[in-house]
2-hydroxyhepta-2,4-diene-1,7-dioate isomerase
Amino acid sequence: MRICRYTSSGREAIGVVIDDRVVHIDGATAIVPILEAGPERWRVLQQQYEDREGTPLADVELLAPIPRPPKFLAIGFNSKDHVDEALNAPATPEMMELRCSYEHLQKAFPAPRFPAVFNKQTNSVAGPRGPIWIPRDSEKVDYEGEAALVIGRRIRRADEGEAAAAIAGWTVTNDVTVRDWQWNTPQTWLGKSFDTHGPTGPWIVTVDDFDLEEAVIRTWVNDELRQDGRLAEQTLSPAQIVAAVSQVCTLEPGDLIATGTPAGIGAPFGRYLVPGDRVRVSVSGIGEIENTVIAEPKQT
């Protein structure tokens, strides 16, 4: 089932996406309670609304499915080809400095015991068609197309089986990154958390309707394909990620975890985003988001 948050005629609503239309779910005010209800409820809702007329998707504005998730976490270095491109990037002064930093990390942690996890502040969440801002503080804004899992039940210290059962759905995200703010401090979240730098959507696909083994992540910038990778080929599986994180903190319904980006980011080649660019991220089996890049507007 595909569940979306949208506006139509100026009113916000929650709906089921059926083919090319969205059908309002009576009485629903948020997506998280639906995710918590579980697969039986999802099937009932799908059957209940699939024959209703609804509103054409072209006539609604899709919003971020979960506008303020309790936590917005992300996994770094979860794709071998992404790590390799950082280590083998062209020998520009900037990339040589970065490569040196990675080599120090590799020497310090030759066999890391835990996944590389960072958080994106929830203010970074943006809609599937909203703008991505180039902040006044930097011109080194990069894209990272990813699939994000959505937690559907409260868990703590889960094993992998319990962790897999806690994943309620999936959505598309772009882990937009301000590279100099990321690289010039050991605190990764600074470069990951600028406003508008976490577009998500276009909806959430429940886990019972998503084939992880077939999912492909692709990113285009101005219709040029930049990233193309399979979700199933990531180093850590979704269950391993959720199980590991749950040892540290309680995971709650509505938490988002972006599971990692494939190779093809802009930084190794200095191909940073500029105003006017269009960034499209697609995950097969879910859908796609497309965001136009603009200069950060002046504050009023």
User: Anything to note?
Assistant: The first helix runs from residue 32 to 37. The chain has two domains: 2-62, 72-295.
